[in-house]
Each structure stands twice: as C-alpha cells, then as structure tokens.
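note to self: dont lose this again. the chain is below, predicted strucutre after it. 188 aa total, dont forget to put it in the shared folder this time
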Amino acid sequence: MNSVHRGVKTGFHRLPLRAGFAKRLDMTSHLPLALCSLDETRDFGRRIAARLGAGDVVFLTGGLGAGKTTLARAIIEALCGVSDAPSPTYTIVQTYETESGTPLWHADLYRIEEEAELEELGLDDAFEDAICLIEWPDRLGEWCPQTRLEIDLSMPGQDDKNQDDNGALKRQVRITGRGDWETRLDDI
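---
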C-alpha cells in the first residue's frame, strides 16, 4: 500500500523529500517517482485514472520510447475497458467513452506543426467536457490549459543507481500539478 505523505516513490515506497521542498514550489506541486517495471507503470496508470473526471487534462511528456503511450493505454483500459488502445500517432486523436459516459480523448500532437491545426481538432471543447490525455503537449502553445496534470517520463542512464535488483532500468517520472491539481497530487 502506498503511503500518503509527499515524497519520492520507488515502486510502492515513498522516500521523504528534503525539508523545505514544498515551500519552494510556486503555484505548482511536484512529485518525483520511479517505476521499475511495466506492471508498476500500469498500476500507476490505474491510480491516475481513478482520479480523473470530465475537464481533466493530463500532459504526457518525454522522449520517444519513454512510455507515454504505455501509460495512456493503462489509463484508457482502466476507464474505458479497452485493453489494446491504438496509438494516435497517425490519427492524431483517438476518442473513447468511459464506463461512466465521460468522453476520453487521447491525442498525440507530435505531427502538429502549427497551432492553427489545433482548431480543427476541437481540443478546446474537449478540454472542458472530456478527459484529455495529451502526448507532445508542447505543440499546444497558446491552447495550453492552465489547470492540468503534467507527467514527464524519462529513462535515466544505465549506471547502478538507476537499476533495480534485477538490473532493469527504472523509469523516472516527474509529476507536476497546475491549478487545482496542486492539491490533488497527494492521492496519487
């Protein structure tokens, strides 16, 4: 079971943060986390999914192969029951309906070259009425919503401190809450 105090999670364990960390935050809250396996990534996706509702926007950032689509698929499976959601790399947007009837949009904006292309997608309406999972959100520019959950995934270097006991690399995750997500991070 996860503890509820703020700190660094490794798998299912949190390590205390340095004193004064929260005091240095300005209008955002941050939570670092390490995921040591595909199962832990899926579990993390289910924890995120349990806290999402209409109007929630989640930014998924990180390099190619960092795990953005894997995490999005776990969230989609938890909310919509779709176990093999396709990547929206070529379609740009895939839409679903959650079991509660809320629309869920999964957008991969990697191929967006100009902000003008975003208007055609209808993201402005989705940001108000749907759950939105956005890969490559840097393409949003002026369309960026103020309230959002940002999840940045990365694979660190291959030194010993970044490997679990079996030698597998730990995926590093930095979670940032903006707007009302600042107070919602403790439950993740």
